[in-house]
Write a structure and sequence with these properties.
Subcellular location: Cytoplasm
Order of helices and strands: EEEHEEHHHHHHHH
CATH class of the largest domain: Mainly Alpha
Number of helices: 9
GO molecular function, one term: four-way junction DNA binding
Strand order of the largest sheet: 1-2-3-5-4
Main location: cytoplasm
InterPro entries: DNA_helicase_Holl-junc_RuvA_I, Hlx-hairpin-Hlx_DNA-bd_motif, NA-bd_OB-fold, RuvA, RuvA_2-like, RuvA_C, RuvA_C_sf
CATH topology of the largest domain: DNA polymerase, domain 1
Structural class: alpha+beta
Number of strands: 5
Organism: Phytoactinopolyspora halotolerans
Number of domains: 3
CATH superfamily of the largest domain: 5' to 3' exonuclease, C-terminal subdomain
Strand content: 15-25%
Largest sheet: 5 strands, mixed, barrel
Oligomer: single chain
Amino acid sequence: MIAFVRGTVASVRPTEAVLDVGGIGLALHCTPSTTAELRTGSEAQLSASLVVREDSLTLYGFATDDERAVFEQLQTASGVGPRLAQAMLSVHSPDDLRRAVATEDLAALTKVPGIGKKGAQRIVIELKDKLGAAAGGPAGTSSIAAAPAGGWQEQVRTALLGLGWSARDADAAVDQVAPLAAENGHAADVPSLLKAALRTLAK
């Protein structure tokens, strides 16, 4: 089992980071809140979960051990694979997911693309005794670091498509956050803009 990965950040995209570990570039799929904290050229350590399939080995990276633990617990529910679990953590923080499951907040769970009412009900039933209680603290907050702005529209759109939204929804969300990008000018922060787009889609 790979518990964490430590190395120099070689590149960062909205939902993926590549860490140089001993001369080997390891690509890790991450949530926007995780990539927002990474800087190219800096040293980083990410908690990791390796998903093994017959035709692939895929690494998922997380800012905290708690996020990784929730990611792995989510996949014990029927119909929840790693991509859907990552999408859930992209829309909601670990504690927000715990609260949603504990209070049977189906509306919150169905904000995640790919989860309908029946799927949300199944997740509540199967995970209510597994995720535990929320640890507390502000909901849905994260530390945002600035990133270069080049091609932010396509980066945000591609990330949204990868997380399961339709092209129409992705285009609409990009249009919604465009004023925010204009305010920041060349300092536009792609992970931050992606998080803003996710918030508009969750409404």
